[in-house]
Amino acid sequence: MSDGEALGEGLLELAVRAAAEAATLVAARRSGGVRVSGTKSSDVDIVTEVDTECERLLRSLVLTARPEDGFLGEEGDDVIGSSGVRWIADPIDGTVNFLYGLPQYAVSLAAEVDGEVVAGVVVNPATGVAYRARRGGGAWRWQGPAASKDARPERLEVRGAVPVAERLVLTGFNYEAHIRRIQAAAAASLLPRVRDIRRLGACALDLCHVAEGAADGYVEEGVELWDHAAGALIAEEAGARSVRTVGRGGKAALVCAPETGFDDFWALVRDAGFLAEGE
After folding, report:
1. In what order do the strands lie in the sheet with 252-258?
2. Angle formed by the axes of helices 262-272 and 177-190, to 10°?
3. Which residues pair with 120 in a beta bridge?
4. Which of 7, 67, 237, 266 is the most buried (most CB within 10 A)?
């Protein structure tokens, strides 16, 4: 194993432990009820006390182990590190689902080295399903406590190539009303051309579903780095391609699909109106 691979493996091991502890916290707090503590970009873009508490825990766990690293999280101030390693965390991806008790939300934690994501973990606290990947080391899924010695990981692989008309597409809707109108129109254009569309509400898990062959593609405008850093790596290591681009509404967008057939998927979502002109 090269020095770079060894570093990536060490970062992944730390990410697995930290995400597992954070997921345990989220699951425990969900059982006691949830209260909205604030909003961000709009009245429907909510934050709960658990989001903030979970991010504090993730910061503490990784920066205690590696105090020279940087940290980027959705709910707190950035930490500038000196090691070349930066952690990227979404304490609860799918907060609205978490609020309502819908079991489609996740703790997402990734580590990047010199700007490249090399390790990522996504854990669904509601179901116990966890996903992980290391750059060049494949993508894996397991059920149960993420750090348990009893966990039996299963290697992931994207679904094989199918005609466009037989593809199941995952998407999401931004919290700003004018972007939602654009996305709704694009989804209406896309729907007759594919098998179906699903809006599950958590970017990180959507990307993991592509990785495990449970969906054939994902497109969404308005996603941030913490939403997709871990999930995109997991999808890529399972055989997908992910591309950060610009959506029709002018916000950052992500397109992800199996490498075989990606170009067809890109053309499909572009023509449907998801992407900016010229993309």
Report:
1. 196-198, 168-171, 217-221, 252-258, 240-246
2. 120
3. 110, 133
4. 237
Q: Read off the pLDDT of residues 31-76 as tens digits, 9 standing for 90 and up.
A: 766 666 554 554 444 468 888 999 999 999 999 999 999 999 987 7
Phi, psi of 139 (to 5 degrees): -120, 145
What are the structural domains, with CATH classification, of the chain?
Answer: 3-155 (3.30.540.10), 164-272 (3.40.190.80)
Q: Which of 77-81, 155-159, 219-223 has the lowest mean pLDDT?
A: 77-81
pLDDT over 90 percentage in the chain: 81
State the pairing for strand pair 240-246/252-258: antiparallel
**What is the rounded CA–CA span in Å between residue 205 and residue 124?**
8
| Residue found under tokens 């290697």 | 155
The distance of Cα 165 from the centroid of its chain, to the nearest Å, equals 26
What Å distances lie between residue 54 and 59, 71, 148, 171, CA to CA?
Answer: 9, 14, 20, 26
H-helix segments, the chain: 3-31, 49-65, 95-100, 177-190, 203-211, 225-237, 262-272
- pLDDT of the residue at 46: 45
Residue carrying the six token digits 């509400």: 201
* Radius of gyration of the chain, Cα coordinates, nearest whole angstrom: 18
Please tell me the pTM assigned to this model. 0.93
* Helix, strand counts (H, E) of the chain: 7, 14
248-279 pLDDT tens trace:
999 999 999 999 999 999 999 999 999 998 88
Strand order in the sheet with 129-134: 70-73, 85-93, 106-113, 116-123, 129-134, 139-143, 154-155
Mean per-residue pLDDT of the chain? 92
Amino acid in the structure at residue 127? T
